[in-house]
Structures are given as structure tokens and as C-alpha cells.
Amino acid sequence: MPYSDFSLRKVKQDFNLTIVEKNTFLNNIQPQQPSFFLADFINKYLPLALALNTEKARSEMLICPILLEIKEICTSSISLFSGNDFTVDASVGLSGVCDFLISLSSEQLFVEAPAVVVVEAKKEDLNGGLGQCVAEMIAAQRFNEQNNTSIPIIYGTVTTGDRWKFLKIENQTVTIGLMEYTLPPLEQILGILTSFIKF
What we know:
The protein is an alpha+beta fold and 199 residues long.
């Protein structure tokens, strides 16, 4: 069963999770100034990505450039993966492809622990992607444990590129921020994503 088969209800039941809903768990986030290149690129291509309105267009024109900026901000201390197979335990459904994954390893040829941020791209329905994102976060948690590099919190986001919703998992507790953050402005989204890596 691939990650995409998980609803929020199913992932909660299958993995015995506690779900906490908050307006936001993102406090004291410092805005991150975008580079001129990113600001110009998003300003120029946001209308096109929204007009095309496919998950692929949104991923390529909005999400990927933002994540590349995060990699640039963090220099060589992280790796970014796009569309890679991330099968961790197929026997419980933790199998398939992650849209985007960030690791705290500088290894770029393959996913190396610890995985820290999972990004699930959606065309429209953010809430519909929550179960899939949580399943991928559990996979990241288990992947880190299997590689003896556990970290206390795994973060996730479900995004259309112009709308972002953030999650975190700590032990068996998943916190879902109900607030949606919109693009523009870039500073807020970049600040949040950067905070996930520099904890």
C-alpha cells in the first residue's frame, strides 16, 4: 500500500497516534529574506503555475525553487530529494515516493539519515494530503531509528505551492497546524522551513 492510500483517520488508527490540532505551533519564527533570484522567479512564474494548475507545474515552479533556496541558505549541511522512492516498511504500508524530502546529511546521491522534513505537493486539497504526509513522516521517523540517527521531531508540510499547512510528529503525537500560510510573502514560508532545519 503506498503512502497515498493513507487518510488521516487510517494513519491515526494503524499507527496508534495522538492527533493534536492547533491554530499554529509555529511561534517566534524569524522571517527569512529571499534571494533576488527567488523573489524575481516567484513573482514572474506564480501566475503561470496557478493558471496551469497541475501538481507538476506547482511543484516545479513554486515548491522546488523554494526548497532549493532552503538548501542554499543551509549551504552544504542538508540534502534535498525530489520524487525518490522512500520505502521504509512495506509490510505496514510505509512505501512509495515522497514528493520532496530534506535530510540533515550532506549526502546527495541517496537518502541518508536523519530525514527531517517531508513535503507533500497537492494540486488543491491540503486537508486531503494530511494522512499521506503523516505516513511519510512516520516513515522518516522509522528510517532514522533504523539508521541509529533518531531526532526528536520530524516536520511535514502539505502545500499547493501558494498555500502551506505545517505538521510535526514527536514520538506518537502528531501536531497539525490548522492555519494556512500563503505565498506571497516568501519571507514567512522561508523562515518556517529554515527553522525546521536549524533546531
